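Q: My collaborator sent me two sequences in one message, no labels, and asked for predicted structures for both. Can we handle them in order? The first one she listed is below.
A: Yes, handling them in the order given. First sequence, followed by its structure tokens:
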Amino acid sequence: MRTRIERMGDRMVNVFHLIGLFVIGAAIVWASWAEVFAIISHGGPSIKDILLLFIYLELGAMVGIYFKTKRLPVRFLIYIAVTALTRLLAIDAKEMGGSPTCWWLPAPS
């Protein structure tokens, strides 16, 4: 009886993982296409748009690898963090105004 309940619990966890991965994957696809349409409406991409699309690409790759292997590759998280910090330092830091850029430098460590 106990093994049957454990198997049912394992199946429920696996179904939850699959549903969660599909929802996350759909959200990534939706957000990336929304960004593509915003790029088209602006008349062309900027470096900010390209870096954001690269972040979406890495998120999608990470979800795909997790779907196949059930392991979360830390390497992709590092790629996402580096790209996000590059985007922050290169693009968004100009818009921050009074916030010194050097405050963001310790973030990767």
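Q: And the one she listed second?
A: Here it is, processed independently of the first:
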Amino acid sequence: MNSNQPKLTRSSSDKVFSGLLGGIAHRYNFEALWLRVGVILGAVMTSGLFVVAYLIASLIVPVDSDDEAKGHPD
């Protein structure tokens, strides 16, 4: 794993529910809106399986600290 890549965390600044999708978007450097649209479509097409996966991932992935969210990692 590249040390320059940020760790996968739930975002405390770019969040709608738990911040998981905002954190994933930040980690992989793309727009969170498209990820949210994809999860909604996936949830509809899989009869809610994506919702269950989202909830489980929200419990597993840690929340970023307030300092990291403001751009001050120390």
